[in-house]
Automatic annotation (TrEMBL):
<keyword id="KW-0547">Nucleotide-binding</keyword>
<dbReference type="GO" id="GO:0005524">
    <property type="term" value="F:ATP binding"/>
</dbReference>
<dbReference type="Pfam" id="PF05746">
    <property type="entry name" value="DALR_1"/>
</dbReference>
<keyword id="KW-0067">ATP-binding</keyword>
<dbReference type="GO" id="GO:0005737">
    <property type="term" value="C:cytoplasm"/>
</dbReference>
<feature type="domain" description="DALR anticodon binding">
    <location>
        <begin position="261"/>
        <end position="378"/>
    </location>
</feature>
<dbReference type="Pfam" id="PF03485">
    <property type="entry name" value="Arg_tRNA_synt_N"/>
</dbReference>
<dbReference type="GO" id="GO:0006420">
    <property type="term" value="P:arginyl-tRNA aminoacylation"/>
</dbReference>
<keyword id="KW-0436">Ligase</keyword>
<dbReference type="InterPro" id="IPR008909">
    <property type="entry name" value="DALR_anticod-bd"/>
</dbReference>
<dbReference type="InterPro" id="IPR005148">
    <property type="entry name" value="Arg-tRNA-synth_N"/>
</dbReference>
<dbReference type="InterPro" id="IPR001278">
    <property type="entry name" value="Arg-tRNA-ligase"/>
</dbReference>
<dbReference type="InterPro" id="IPR009080">
    <property type="entry name" value="tRNAsynth_Ia_anticodon-bd"/>
</dbReference>
<dbReference type="GO" id="GO:0004814">
    <property type="term" value="F:arginine-tRNA ligase activity"/>
</dbReference>
<protein>
    <recommendedName>
        <fullName>arginine--tRNA ligase</fullName>
        <ecNumber>6.1.1.19</ecNumber>
    </recommendedName>
</protein>
<dbReference type="InterPro" id="IPR036695">
    <property type="entry name" value="Arg-tRNA-synth_N_sf"/>
</dbReference>
<feature type="domain" description="Arginyl tRNA synthetase N-terminal">
    <location>
        <begin position="4"/>
        <end position="92"/>
    </location>
</feature>
Length: 378
């Protein structure tokens, strides 16, 4: 059972409690599940009971006990323990957690950099539920606004939307040359250059204004960082935050989030090359994945939701921060991927290599949606 499948199982328990009259709440769209925190136990934990307590008009512990009884009645659940103010700690049946991780890695490796594409998203101002939307993005002639609109167009198209991007004024040639944007006007059919392509959207699409806080320095200072670091500097902060533009985006050390993301991806590619030289390749297998990889599995399973919500909320910064989380989660796994000394490649090494490659695939796909290269060598 993958985290996504477990999330649906938790929502099924909520729905049963609502249908049985034990809870009077609206069933949420999703239930967040993650590895248990300090004081927790089992395979996964969720705070859904704390989230529902106020609208249900009941104490969190009472809501947790109601949901616990319904969870225990569902397939794949071995035990549920309530801890703290109302956290549900879920233990899966033997083989469920392992089988879910295998399917997750297989899904990522099968879909490649398009893992997470095509998931329909919901937002308050548009209809969804399986219907691709037409979105018209309008931005001022500001470098950050153009870059954010470009990344947002990529995200929206990854989720099946038709996108048109228009600008309030001409775009300087040097912006287009370095940051892959074109000179556009309000009445142009096409907007920013998009490596993912996609149909232009007619004038009837409701306009969405893209107006993040501008960079506090001249555009020339952003251009001096180069395309990758410059785009990251503009996209990583939330739109309402003022971006920091400086040499810290170019340093090759852990303090630089962009470096950590690209370094993690390059390490996964290096492991692939080294494993090939040793005569083995990736092969998903759950029983050989170490405990240190559990946070990584959760972040990979969450990737489709991150893409969908980043598109729905017009917030490419959510994807940027998610990539940092994936990078930080995969780095502890990497030293255990290759055999040491005279050790022969085993099923454990093949499984760890598959998981590392899945993480590298997600990093590469996410960077591509941000318009940033994912080099194989750093």
């Amino acid at each position: 059972m993958t985290p996504v499948e477990l999330s649906r199982t938790v929502l099924r328990a909520v729905r049963r409690a609502v249908d049985g009259g034990e809870l009077c709440v609206s069933v949420p769209e999703r239930a967040v599940v993650a590895p248990p925190g300090p004081g927790g136990c089992g395979d996964y934990a969720t705070a859904i009971a704390l989230r529902l307590a106020r609208p249900a008009g009941q104490p969190p512990l009472r809501v947790a006990e109601v949901l616990r009884s319904h969870l225990l009645a569902l397939d794949g659940i071995r035990d549920v323990v309530v801890t703290g103010p109302g956290f549900l700690n879920i233990s899966l049946e033997d083989g469920q957690a392992e089988g879910g991780s295998v399917r997750l890695v297989e899904d990522v490796l099968r879909d490649g950099v398009r893992y997470g594409y095509g998931y329909r998203f919901a937002s308050s101002d548009t209809a969804c539920h399986g219907t691709a939307q037409d979105v018209r993005l309008r931005c001022p002639a500001d470098l950050r606004a153009l870059v954010v609109a470009d990344a947002l167009a990529r995200l929206l198209r990854s989720q099946g939307a038709g996108v048109r991007v228009v600008c309030a004024g001409p775009v300087p040639r040097e912006w287009g040359e370095l940051f892959a944007v074109r000179d556009v006007g309000l009445d142009e059919v096409d907007g920013l250059a998009d490596s993912e392509g996609g149909e232009a959207v007619g004038a009837g699409a409701a306009p969405v204004l893209v107006r993040p806080v501008p960079a506090p320095v001249p555009a020339a200072d952003v251009l001096a960082l180069g395309r990758d670091a410059g785009r990251w500097a503009l996209l990583h902060p939330a739109g309402h935050d003022r971006p920091r533009i400086g040499a810290e985006h170019l340093v090759q050390r852990e303090s630089n989030p962009l470096f950590r993301v690209r370094y993690a991806h390059a390490r996964t590619r290096a492991l692939h090359r080294n494993a090939a030289a040793l005569g083995f390749g990736p092969e998903p297998g759950a029983t050989h994945v170490p405990a240190v990889a559990r946070p990584l599995l959760a972040t990979l399973a969450d990737h489709p939701r991150v893409l969908a919500r980043a598109a729905a909320h017009r917030a490419p910064d959510r994807l940027a921060r998610h990539l940092v989380t994936v990078a930080d989660a995969v780095l502890p796994l990497l030293p255990a991927v290759l055999p040491l000394g005279e050790e022969k490649p085993s099923a454990a090494h093949r499984a760890r290599l598959a998981l590392a490659e899945a993480a590298g695939t997600v990093l590469a796909g996410g960077l591509s949606l941000l318009g940033i290269d994912a080099p194989d060598h750093l």
